[in-house]
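for the writeup, i need someone to sanity check this before i put it in the appendix. the sequnce is what the collaborator sent (i think, or maybe the updated version? ugh). structure was predicted straight from it, no edits. if anything looks off just tell me and ill rerun, i have time this weekend
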Amino acid sequence: MEAGARLGLNGLLLLLGGASLGHLLPYIYNQAQSLASMQVAIDRAETSHLKLKTDLNRYFDPTQSQHLIQEQSGYQNTSERPVVWIAPASH
């Protein structure tokens, strides 16, 4: 009788544990999906941050100033001026 009571109680505890686990599985699945979508958002934000940081370092780096002047103005050197060719006037 004692062994039967222990088996019955252990069986009841096993059923309750299984039911609790059954209730937790959808919650765990939703949390995993949420984590995956957040990881994608974090990856995008890190990529954007890296690009912005690279641009910031590029624009505020004194060693790159000459290259930036050349890129934005077309001058090869700050002492050079652009040459504008004008067609000769016909008489």
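The mean pLDDT is 87. The radius of gyration is 36 Å.
thx in advance!!
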